[in-house]
Recover the amino acids of this structure.
């Protein structure tokens, strides 16, 4: 992976960097493979995480993202491949010698220990002075705003508070890597939203390299610096949230992240054109497609132009509104194009909707701007 | 270091094995502990049992004779009859015990009749006495010179199958009741509401909701009672007369005729039904699913006055019978000569012939050691199997379940073969209290092991992973987190070991030696020698000690619960700083 690594000085471990001379990645995975019996969980996964970066492993359940995290943590053993941390090969090391903190989905707080003792758990093993341990515990509880609950037991806290205790416990020994395994999925929606921002801000402030596993694309988009989209044990795409959203490299990514209209089509003889039945649509240049190839065209709902904006535009279709779904800041329209045309979802900002006076059955012109119309080579059903 | 060579990315064929891991002290410690646990099970369970199997194929001079012993066993009608006798007695006792206990448990859990607490405690009484005590009491009541026989002039012919079944029902009643109370107590009120809303009759509700709900509990109770009866030695020894069952047959062969190989042969045959019950029970329980989910609403007992008074009468009758048996035991030990001379005396408590207070002290000591060592080994063993997932885990788990299917007599005989062998490294243990502790520990291993496993499975699976990530070794987390959380279970396990260690007879009857007499064995020998009053006096003391210990545990458990309540329940009050 050739992404730019931040220029930071002060590396301590041997410098077997991947980027040639630059500081080694905080975590580098090379050709990781894992099977459970006859089931292949991971196949040749390679990626690297730069220091201070927040990376999300995103994918549906069973895609191997949690297994990959557990391999980084040393809780699961890969069948092949190398795990490096700051250049050091840790493939053969037990979890205790890998220098990371981890927060599990269940938090795994020790129920018989108070909040303070939970946070101090990893410090006590390091035989620091008692006063030093106390001070560190207070510092971390301040960080997660739970100092008032110091002497409570986990069962006396709310889910969100428990999650923050788990975070404080993981951070207490000052690890150089933070691993988060679906840390927010056990919480209700509102707490989840608040904690998303809080955790991201905390990570920024501490500058700690973080890997989070999630199946929630919104969580990944809002929190991550980079997202690793996984499916069936392989990496589908690695990129910033904007890249993943705007330029999904495969149909799977397009479908998994955000919503996208997918239209089955056939490549036309004219380069840059495709046919949907009687309809001819111009799309982004797609080198490599030949006339007659089955392709899939994709466009995000908010990129579909509606009404006045569609006038005089390329790829203009006329259809009827089949559904109006109010979603707050925007409204999603279902539009069935006339004749045998495709059915499309289009998102309209609240203001635009009011101007158009749309209801179910209204006739509507929409345009699929060619530069927003992507081409995927596989048909949608094939995945 | 066992790191695999870095494979070329992509094209490499996937290795079938996960990469090895560098050995550090923690992993070594873990492996050593798993190894020790395996060694324990091997030396004290697998090897002795293998010895029994092997010896059944030898003659008494140690020559290999193949299945000749088995041929002789089945060809000798007097001995072969013990098989059918054992099976018929066990099945009869099973049906009667489970039926009686079901109604009793139903009354305790599904009605609001008064005195449920008292009924429950009374029904538990038989657990505190060795099985043969109930047989002695039945002889006192219904025997040729029994008090009931004398009063009514009707001799029901207690010696034989009838007496065995009667005494076994009494002895097994609490075991079946406990299982059925648990099964009947876990009911989902929503099912009953739905049935009522659909217009089902009382009988239909019972047949379509209640019975299916306790199906697995019923089966479990059946298997437990069947195994208890078929492996029991004390009751048939006392009241069986000429009616020979397999457990007494082993005793006769080994003690009476010094025919060890025939003893081994009968042992192997006795293992078959016990193992079969065990295997079938495991298979049935595996198909069990959670009948009561987390969303279930507990069933509040309804108000049905008629049923309530009928059931109250029933429970009162059963409880009166149990208390009556105990009264017979107590009274017979403090009167001059039951049932002829009822002048009170304490002379039977002087123990002038066999056993006495040394045997009682030995019993308490053995039971206490069994409780301590047994609790440590079962809990640590369950932890190693459950949390340190090693390749050996599955084998160790199966081996840990096995003891429940091994009759005490068979285990005792196996220990003779192993510990009394000349030149064996284990020989010094023979004739010591240690061998009694070990045999109790292995004999009662399975239930505590499963209790510990259940407690451990309820804990978050990531505790160990969190500690590893924090650099805390597993044994520290075991001590600071796992043990405190499981404390109620641990206390329960040690009580189970203690109480069983006090009353067990079959596993130790071959192993006691001069100086290591045990109270339960003394009861047997006293009864054999005709000193029945001293036998009941010893029984009274065994029961008293058991009840006392139970009380101590009750207080202990209350203390533990109070201490753990702070974190076990989500009270919203802040706890004071310490």
């Amino acid at each position: 992976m050739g992404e730019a690594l931040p220029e930071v000085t002060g590396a301590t471990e041997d410098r077997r960097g991947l980027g040639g001379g630059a500081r080694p990645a905080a975590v580098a995975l090379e050709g990781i493979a894992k099977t459970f019996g006859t089931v292949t969980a991971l196949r040749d996964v390679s990626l690297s995480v730069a220091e201070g970066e927040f990376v999300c492993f995103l994918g549906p359940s069973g895609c191997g993202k949690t297994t990959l995290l557990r391999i980084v943590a040393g809780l699961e053993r890969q069948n092949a491949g190398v795990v490096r941390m700051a250049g050091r090969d840790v493939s053969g090391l037990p979890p205790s010698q890998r220098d990371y903190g981890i927060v599990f989905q269940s938090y795994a707080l020790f129920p018989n220990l108070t909040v303070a003792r939970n946070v101090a758990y990893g410090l006590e093993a390091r035989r620091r002075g008692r006063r030093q341990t106390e001070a560190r515990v207070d510092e971390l509880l301040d960080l997660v705003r739970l100092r008032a609950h110091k002497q409570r037991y986990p069962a006396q806290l709310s889910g969100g508070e428990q999650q923050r205790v788990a975070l404080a416990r993981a951070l207490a020994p000052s690890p150089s890597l933070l691993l988060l395994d679906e840390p927010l999925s056990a919480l209700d929606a509102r707490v989840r939203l608040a904690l998303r921002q809080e955790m991201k801000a905390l990570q920024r402030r501490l500058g700690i390299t973080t890997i989070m596993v999630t199946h929630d694309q919104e969580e990944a988009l809002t929190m991550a610096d980079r997202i690793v989209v996984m499916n069936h044990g392989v990496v589908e795409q690695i990129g910033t949230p904007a890249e993943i959203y705007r330029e999904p490299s495969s149909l799977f990514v397009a479908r998994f992240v955000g919503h996208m209209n997918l239209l089955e089509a056939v490549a036309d003889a004219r380069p840059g054109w495709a046919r949907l039945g009687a309809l001819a649509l111009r799309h982004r240049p797609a080198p490599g497609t030949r006339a007659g190839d089955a392709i899939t065209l994709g466009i995000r709902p908010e990129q579909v132009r509606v009404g006045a904006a569609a006038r005089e535009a390329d790829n203009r279709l006329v259809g009827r509104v089949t559904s109006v779904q109010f979603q707050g800041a925007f409204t999603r329209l279902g539009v069935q194009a006339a004749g045998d045309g495709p059915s499309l979802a289009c998102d309209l900002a609240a203001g635009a909707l009011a101007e158009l006076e749309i209801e179910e059955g209204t006739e509507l012109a929409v345009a699929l701007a060619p530069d927003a119309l992507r081409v995927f080579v596989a048909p949608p059903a094939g995945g | 270091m066992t790191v695999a060579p870095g494979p070329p990315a992509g094209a490499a064929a996937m290795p079938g094995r996960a990469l090895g891991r560098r050995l550090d002290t923690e992993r070594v410690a873990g492996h050593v502990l798993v190894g020790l646990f395996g060694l324990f099970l091997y030396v004290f369970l697998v090897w002795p049992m293998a010895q029994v199997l092997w010896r059944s194929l030898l003659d008494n001079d140690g020559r290999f004779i193949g299945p000749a012993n088995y041929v002789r066993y089945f060809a000798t009608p007097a001995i072969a009859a013990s098989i059918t006798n054992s099976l018929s007695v066990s099945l009869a006792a099973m049906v009667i015990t489970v039926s009686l206990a079901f109604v009793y448990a139903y009354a305790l859990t599904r009605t609001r009749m008064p005195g449920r607490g008292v009924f429950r405690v009374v029904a538990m009484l038989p657990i505190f006495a060795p099985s043969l005590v109930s047989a002695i009491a039945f002889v006192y009541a219904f025997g040729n010179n029994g008090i009931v026989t004398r009063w009514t002039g009707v001799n029901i012919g207690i010696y034989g199958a009838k007496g065995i079944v009667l005494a076994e029902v009494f002895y097994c009643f609490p075991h079946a009741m406990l299982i059925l109370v648990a099964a009947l107590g876990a009911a989902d009120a929503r099912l009953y509401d739905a049935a009522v809303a659909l217009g089902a009759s009382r009988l239909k509700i019972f047949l379509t909701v209640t019975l299916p709900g306790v199906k697995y509990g019923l089966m479990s109770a059946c298997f437990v009672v069947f195994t208890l009866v078929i492996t029991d030695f004390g009751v048939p020894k006392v009241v069986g007369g000429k009616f020979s069952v397999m457990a007494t047959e082993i005793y006769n062969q080994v003690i009476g005729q010094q025919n060890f190989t025939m003893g081994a042969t009968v042992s192997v045959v006795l293992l078959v039904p016990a193992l079969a019950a065990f295997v079938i029970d495991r298979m049935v329980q595996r198909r069990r699913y959670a009948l009561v989910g987390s969303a279930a609403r507990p069933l509040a007992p309804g108000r049905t006055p008629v049923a309530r008074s009928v059931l109250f009468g029933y429970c009162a009758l059963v409880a009166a019978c149990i208390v009556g048996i105990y009264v017979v035991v107590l009274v017979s030990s403090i009167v001059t000569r039951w049932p002829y001379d009822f002048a009170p005396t304490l002379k039977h408590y002087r123990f002038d012939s066999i056993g006495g207070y040394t045997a009682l002290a030995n019993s308490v000591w053995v039971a206490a050691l069994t409780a301590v060592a047994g609790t440590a080994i079962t809990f640590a063993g369950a932890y190693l199997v459950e949390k340190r997932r090693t390749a050996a885990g599955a084998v160790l788990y199966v081996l840990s379940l096995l003891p429940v299917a091994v009759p005490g007599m068979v285990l005792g005989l196996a220990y003779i073969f192993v510990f009394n062998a000349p030149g064996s490294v284990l020989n010094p243990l023979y004739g010591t209290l240690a061998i009694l502790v070990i045999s109790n520990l292995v004999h009662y291993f399975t239930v505590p092991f499963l209790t510990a496993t259940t407690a451990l499975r309820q804990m978050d699976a990531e505790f160990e992973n969190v500690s590893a990530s924090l650099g805390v070794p597993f044994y520290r987390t075991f001590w600071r987190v796992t043990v405190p959380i499981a404390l109620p279970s641990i206390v329960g396990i040690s009580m189970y070991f203690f109480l069983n260690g006090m009353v067990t007879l079959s596993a130790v009857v071959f192993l006691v030696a001069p100086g290591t007499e045990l109270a339960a064995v003394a009861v047997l020998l006293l009864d054999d020698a005709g000193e029945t009053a001293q036998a009941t006096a010893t029984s009274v003391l065994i029961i008293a000690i058991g009840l006392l210990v139970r009380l101590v545990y009750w207080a202990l458990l209350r203390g533990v619960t109070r201490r753990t309540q702070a974190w076990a329940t989500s009270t919203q009050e802040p706890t004071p700083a310490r």
